[in-house]
Design a protein that fits this description.
about 250 residues; alpha/beta; five-stranded parallel beta sheet; 8 strands; globular
Length: about 250
């Protein structure tokens, strides 16, 4: 199994333990190293770098940070991405989150910074990992205008937009919330397995009350999708692993 989206750096001092635990069940983790609050990308990179080869990094700028419109910080992250361009598998997570960005100015900041990093992905010829909440259609339309290939992680939006997303060769992330969020379960029912990736978004979205989510809990999402589809766990694991490896261009041989 592969966890297509996690934030292992957020476990801080427990990172070695989380990685060791994950290696027992998973083939790989794609970690979205994202500029957000006190989690600076260069610090997160340093923390995770010893585990690269099992952890595959992306680099991005979270929309909930982008709403502040701090372009000095944007430029620092952009410079870091250019320095690590040959080591990352995507740009992200980036996107729009209108649930938390309520004012016109905050949303304008998010859109401008999102567009900036989409252009960077164009320049680097990399796919993008998208965080879109209450703004799925707008994020999709911006990606289409750029001609990029996208992975909409932790999708919980409208089913019709989800269909449009996959019809245009993008992928949808079904996270461990599929066990307790009806909107996620609905999307999982509608989409073919060939159009989805499975993820935890660890340490968020835990399927176990009172616990932080962990990358190896991705099995919970795989099992739930198998039950929804009426197929074997092995089939869901095989197809979603293949989807992840192809999207990010990862070779585990």
């Amino acid at each position: 199994m592969i966890d297509a989206h996690a934030h292992v750096e957020m476990f801080k001092k427990n990172v070695p333990h989380i990685v060791e635990e994950s290696r027992k069940e998973l083939r790989a983790i794609v970690d979205s190293i994202t500029e957000y609050r006190k989690f600076h990308v260069w610090k997160s990179w340093e923390l995770l770098e010893p585990y690269f080869g099992f952890i595959f990094p992306t680099l991005g700028f979270a929309p909930n940070e982008a709403k502040r419109g701090n372009w000095e910080r944007v430029k620092k992250v952009e410079k870091f991405i250019w320095a690590k361009k040959d080591e990352i598998v995507a740009i992200g997570e980036i996107g729009l989150d209108y649930y938390y960005a309520e004012t016109k100015k905050e949303r304008e900041n998010q859109k401008a910074i999102f567009d900036h990093f989409l252009t960077l992905a164009e320049d680097l010829n990399l796919p993008v990992v998208i965080h879109a909440r209450d703004a799925e259609r707008e994020a999709f339309e911006m990606i289409q205008r750029k001609g990029l290939v996208a992975y909409f992680h932790s999708y919980s939006g409208d089913v019709e937009i989800a269909k449009k997303i996959v019809e245009n060769s993008h992928l949808i992330g079904i996270n461990t919330g599929v066990t307790f969020i009806p909107e996620v379960e609905t999307v999982a029912k509608v989409l073919d397995i060939e159009n989805i990736l499975v993820e935890t978004d660890a340490p968020y979205m835990s399927p176990f009350k009172g616990e932080k989510n962990k990358p190896n809990y991705v099995r919970v999402a795989v099992e739930k999708i198998a039950a929804i589809k009426g197929v074997g766990v092995e089939e869901v694991e095989s197809v979603t692993d293949k989807n992840t490896l192809m999207f990010f261009g990862i070779d585990l041989r």
